[in-house]
Each structure stands twice: as structure tokens, then as C-alpha cells.
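User: quick one, fold this
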Amino acid sequence: MRAYVLTQVRTGMEQEELVALQDIASLEEIDFLFGEYACILTVQATDTATLARLITERIRKAPGVVQTTTLLEAPFA
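Assistant:
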């Protein structure tokens, strides 16, 4: 399953977040954004339990991350 994780980061902590997240094996892509969210992460997970662990144990614990919003890809018939 593919998911998109939007992160809100404390101002000035974007670089620290990037460095901390780069070694996540299931991370496919990181794109920086302007606006409410600092970046969008594209991640792969085998199931929702694995995704939940990835978000709570790795992404939310990255330096500067204050909030995440996760969107699951919905395969279209």
C-alpha cells in the first residue's frame, strides 16, 4: 500500500527533518511544500499496522515534526 504523509515542522527545522528521514527504507520520495505543510512523503507499507509503526516510531519522532496527516492511496477499480 502507498501512503502520502504530510508533515508540519517547526520553522527552521526542515533540514534536520530531511536528514532524519532519508534513511527510512520504505520512503520513496520527499517533496518540500510551501504553505501549511513543510513536506509530503511518499511511503510504501505492507499493511496498516506497518504504516502505523512507521509513522509513530520514525516520522513523528523526526526533529522538528509537530504534526502529520496521512492519506492512503485508493486504487481505482
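User: anything notable?
Assistant: The chain has a mean pLDDT of 94.
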